[in-house]
Design goal:
With 204 residues, this protein is an alpha/beta fold. It has 6 helices and 9 strands, in the order H-E-H-E-H-E-E-H-E-E-H-E-H-E-E. The strands form 2 sheets. The chain has a 7-stranded mixed sheet with strand order 3-2-1-4-5-9-8, with helices on both faces.
Length: 204
């Protein structure tokens, strides 16, 4: 039996997300994944996009050993060892040496709704610091949109999140866009995804 951490949700959504990434990303580049969690997304993307190098990270130091095992066991040259990275810190990564380069893409899935609201502004500001010219910030997850009736499943999910932690919850896309604009980014594209999720593409 594998000793790797596993997320059923990540397993379900990794291929639909990849299919969108294939139409967004170029043939090669460097990507930073924020809140890698189990590392299933990064491993899947690095396998399908051999011209890209994926730097994994997580804010929870307890998640790093399992994430490092996945990276090592994958044997993928384009999958980087994880670093500790809390978006709220003034510099990225949170410990160790600074990144050797900026990134063509920064990818963050399912973080904004399970972290306090200030992480949104911090994500946008950090992305603005670390994206190369022409680079994109990609966020994936559920959002509430003005003029769009929320799915009952998202309403129930939002309530369950706020019961677990009152600082959590599904975010308003309008408010997320406002945080992006303050950091010098704007929403370039919105892609509807399965299970009432969105893949958003931000850039300068």
């Amino acid at each position: 039996m594998s000793d790797l951490s596993f997320s059923p949700a990540a397993e379900r959504n990794k291929q639909p997300i990849l299919e969108r990434l294939l139409g967004i990303l170029g043939r090669e580049g460097a990507a930073l994944e924020i809140a890698s969690g189990t590392g299933q997304h990064a491993e899947w993307f690095a396998t399908a996009l051999p011209g890209w190098r994926w730097q994994t990270s997580d804010a929870d130091a307890r998640a790093l050993p399992a994430l490092a095992r996945r990276v090592e066991q994958s044997g993928l040259p384009g999958l980087g060892k994880p670093v500790l990275l809390d978006v709220l810190d003034a510099s990225w990564p949170s410990q160790g040496t600074a990144f050797a380069q900026d990134f063509d893409a920064i990818y963050c899935a399912n973080m904004l709704h399970i972290s306090p609201w200030p992480t949104c502004a911090a994500l946008m500001q950090g992305a603005a610091r670390h994206l190369r010219p022409g680079g994109v910030l990609l966020t994936y997850g559920p959002y509430f949109e003005e003029g769009v009736a929320p799915a009952p499943s998202n309403l129930a999910f939002d309530q369950s999140l706020r019961e677990r932690d009152p600082t959590w919850g599904i975010r308003s896309l309008t408010q997320v866009e406002a945080q992006a604009r303050e950091a010098g980014l704007r929403l370039h594209a919105r892609h509807a995804m399965p299970a009432n999720n969105l893949l958003l593409v931000f850039g300068r």
